[in-house]
Each structure stands twice: as C-alpha cells, then as structure tokens.
Amino acid sequence: MLPIYDYLFLSFALFLIGAVGALTRRNIIVKLFSIELILNAAAINLAAFARTFADAGGQTFTSFMIAVIVAEIFVALAIIAAVFRRWQIPSPSSAEWPVGRAVEQPEQDVPAQ
Amino acid sequence: MHGQITFFLLAGIAIFSALMMVSRDKTVYGAFYFALTMLSTAGIFLQLRAPLLFTAQLLAVACLLIGIIVFAIEVGKLDVAIAAEYSWRARVAGIAAALVLTLDIVLALLQRRQFPGEKITELLPRAPSFSPLSVSDIILHFYSHDLMTLALLLFMFLIAAVGIIALSQRRA
C-alpha cells in the first residue's frame, strides 16, 4: 500500500477544489456538485484510514456516504426544478436577473412642438 | 511500483476533472466531469482493496448519469445554467488559488519523496493486524456495530423518496 500521505494529499486537493467551486460559482448545480466533491474527498480519507488500520468502520461509513451523495443529488435536483418552476424565477442570463430588478425602458423621443 | 503509477494516474484524472468541473460554464459538461471524478475515485477505492466501495461508487455513477439524463430536459428548460457568471474575477482568483495550492501539494509530495523517514502514521496508533478487509467483514460491521445508523439512513431515504415523488407530481 502507498503511504497514507498520498491519499491525504489527493483528498486535500479535491476538498480544496470543491470548496473553491462552492464558494465562487453562482450556478446552483455546480455548487451542488462541488459540495459532492467535498464529500467524495472525505470518503477517500475514510477509506484510506480504514485500509491503514484494517478497520471495517471506515468502509462502512464510506458506503453510507456514497449512498447519501447519490440521494442528495437526486433530491437537490428535484428541489431546484420544483422551486424554479413554482416561483417562475427568471433565468439568470435574462435582463430581469436578479429578481426584483426593474428593467430599464428605452427612452422615447419627444416630438418637438 | 505499478500501484504507484495507477494511483498517480487516477489521482491526476480526478484532480483534472474536478478542475474542469469547476471551471466549465455549461452545467452538462460539469456533470460529466463530475462523473469522471467519481469514476477515478472508484478506481482508487479498488486500489485500496475495497471492492464493496468500488461497486457502490460505480452504482452511484450510474445513478448519477441516469439522474442527469432525467433532469437534463427539465433543468435545461428552466435555464439554471448561467451564461455569464456574476463575479468572474472571483472565479478566476479561486481557480488560480486552487492551482497554486495544488502545486504546493505536489511540491510537498516530491519533498517527502526525498526524505522518506518522516511518516504521519507514526503519530497514530499502529493497527494490531494488517489484513485486508473482506466484504463479509463490512457486512458484519453493518449489522452489528452500525445497525442504528443503517436504520436511520433507511428512514431518511424513505422520507427523501416520498418528498421527491411529491415534488415531481406537483403541478405549477
């Protein structure tokens, strides 16, 4: 087995990328995937320590975590779709974003008298 | 040596696809890069001699792909994907920070290769036995030590399933 350093470095890199994505992106789905990436990094840590110390608890909790990751993705996508459909939130790429901002009307030329 | 090559290949794929997932504009590409990250993580689980986790991760990737296909049309209609990010400077700065810190990790790893005497495991208690775990050990652990956790998790899954069915059948 490789030294546990390597797995810790990989886990830290994935955690870092996930944290950066969750903090800097505005896309809700990419934020969700970044959070799942953080969970994935934690799963690698648990599995590596389970292998190092020959303990079944780490692999047990990692399998729980994988199940939670999948369920969370489905539930979060369903909630996002339902919320956007229910409240008719305008597209972020449209002119009405953010919500509540008044759309500027073009000025009309007043005919001279 | 082969194990090291496999690990560094899988780790490189995982980090590269994670970076691409964070930096892509289109959500669908990000989702597929996320699936690639999970696949490489499954390979790392297999290298850690955890076949149950490998299988669970493959099933998770399959479920993720099905979920992407199912929700792609709905999410595409809603246009959740943002064409123009609000703070692109923050995004570029974040990606640059991630790259610098990842480079720092690589340098630390190379430095550790030069001084192999120092190991973090010496600070932790050593395992009494170093035999690889079998699937039956994990299943036994499931139903002996973590039965309460398993029951709670199944209960949460039941609530989530009811909620997702109720949300999907609701009309605007």
Element layout with pairings:
The complex is a heterodimer of chains A (113) and B (172).
Chain A: H1 4-24, H2 28-53, H3 56-86
Helix pairs in contact in A: 1-2, 2-3
Chain B: H1 2-23, H2 27-47, H3 51-78, H4 88-114, H5 135-144, H6 147-168
Helix pairs in contact in B: 1-2, 2-3
Explain this structure to me?
The complex is a heterodimer of chains A (113) and B (172). Chain A has 113 residues and is mostly helical. Chain A has helices at residues 4-24, 28-53, 56-86. Chain A has one domain: Orthogonal Bundle (Helix Hairpins). In chain A, helix 2 packs antiparallel against helix 3. The longest helix of chain A has 31 residues, at 56-86. Mean pLDDT of chain B is 72; it is low at 120-128. At the A-B interface, helix 1, helix 2 and helix 3 of A face helix 1, helix 2, helix 3, helix 4 and helix 5 of B.
Strand residue content of chain B: under 5%
Could you say what the CATH architecture of chain A is?
A: Orthogonal Bundle
Q: What is the ordering of alpha helices and beta strands of chain A?
A: HHH
Supply the number of structural domains of chain A: 1
Give the tally of β-strands of chain A.
0
The total beta strand count of chain B reads 0
Number of helices of chain A: 3
Low-confidence stretches of chain B: 120-128
Number of discrete helical segments of chain B? 6
CA-CA gap between termini of chain A = 89 Å
Oligomer: heterodimer
Rg of chain B = 21 Å
Average pLDDT taken over every residue of chain A: 76
Major sheet details of chain B: none
Q: What percentage of residues of chain A falls in helices of 4 or more residues?
A: 55-70%
Low-confidence stretches of chain A: none
| Most extensive interface, chain pair and sizes | A-B, 71 and 89 residues
Protein structure class of chain B: mainly alpha
Provide a concise account of the structure shown:
Chain A is mainly alpha-helical. Chain A has helices spanning 4-24, 28-53, 56-86. In chain A, 41% of the residues are buried.
